[in-house]
Design brief:
This is Mitochondrial uncoupling protein 5. The protein has ten helices and two strands; from the N terminus they run H-H-E-E-H-H-H-H-H-H-H-H. It is mainly alpha-helical and 317 residues long.
């Protein structure tokens, strides 16, 4: 397919990502609900003896959980309507790096592994193509992913603690200056795992559902079939990836201050602390916004992709 497949997938992904950005922002805010920073205190009983050099920490109880509409309304009320597009520049960069790579590689692998006689490809190979393409794409796009999460979450912080990034490039520059180059790949293991799950489940499910519907004559090849397949793909991808996505969001968003112990040592530590403090279902925070975002994202992605292919069909690069 050459570079053309990457260009087609990238353009379609940027359009889909920008169109569904507000839902993605709401999802991130919901995933961070219940995460409480430790409140340092020097108060102790008069006869207590200090047995450790580290200061004690008291965790405030998490506030009541708020749903999709509640979070969206709060953002508009407290931060303004424009806040729903906070971090959209990071979304553009992320889709340019991550989705362009995964869409292009997935099509290349799928084409290469398709049986030339039957013109079919087994589900296992579709999943394998998704795992490989998603993992490589996530490694390439992780810096933009970290910047996007931070820019989306900034509005929930107190004014004194906000990072106030001006753009995705400013976010990346500040992270490099203040936390080192390695901060750009913070949470990369979770990002790669999530991307592998999302790409494999999303693209493989879309292809399989669409093929099944058309083979059995349930629908004609058109917009209704694309929408149905997309919703199925979005739901499966959401179920598979949401727990990893919650942990990824929290690890990427944590504020690391020199001389202080970070909130989480890594992804496993974050998962254990989240489950202990908030219960297992905390791993599915933001699930419905994820579904609400994945379904239209997939619809817009594939509908746009078909139109881009028509526009670029006469170009060879």
């Amino acid at each position: 397919m050459g570079l053309k497949g990457f260009a087609e997938g990238g353009i379609a992904s940027i359009v889909a990502g920008c169109s569904t950005h507000p839902l993605d922002l709401i999802k991130v805010r919901m995933q961070l609900q219940g995460e409480s920073a430790p409140v340092q205190t020097n108060l102790r009983p008069a006869l207590a003896f200090q047995t450790s050099s580290s200061s004690s920490a008291v965790h405030a109880p998490p506030p009541p959980r708020v749903g999709i509409i509640g979070i969206g309304s709060r953002i508009i009320r407290q931060e303004g309507t424009r806040a729903l597009f906070s971090g959209v520049s990071a979304t553009v960069l992320r889709q340019t790096l991550y989705s362009t790579t995964r869409m292009g590689l997935y099509d290349i692998l799928k084409t290469k592994w398709t049986d030339p006689e039957t013109k079919s490809i087994p589900l296992t190979r579709k999943l394998a193509a998704g795992f490989i393409a998603g993992g490589i794409g996530a490694a390439v796009g992780n810096p933009a992913d970290v910047a996007m999460v931070r820019m989306q979450a900034d509005g929930r912080l107190p004014l004194a603690d906000r990072r106030n990034y001006k753009s995705v490039l400013d976010a990346i520059a500040q992270m490099v200056r203040g936390e080192g180059v390695t901060s750009l790949w913070r949470g990369s293991s979770m990002t790669i795992n999530r991307a592998m799950l999302v790409t494999a489940s999303q693209l493989a499910t879309y292809d399989s559902v669409k093929e099944t519907v058309l083979e059995r004559g349930l629908m004609r090849d058109g917009l209704v079939t694309h929408v149905t397949s997309s919703f199925a793909a979005g739901f499966v991808a959401s179920v598979a990836s949401n727990p990893v996505d919650v942990i990824k969001t929290r690890v990427m968003n944590m504020k690391v201050v020199a001389g202080k112990t970070p909130p989480y040592k890594g992804a496993v530590d974050c998962a254990l602390k989240t489950v202990r403090a908030e219960g297992v279902m905390a791993l599915y925070k933001g699930f419905w916004p994820t579904v609400s975002r994945q379904a239209p994202f997939t619809v817009i992605l594939f509908v746009t992709l078909e139109q881009v292919k028509k526009v670029l069909k006469d170009f060879d690069f």
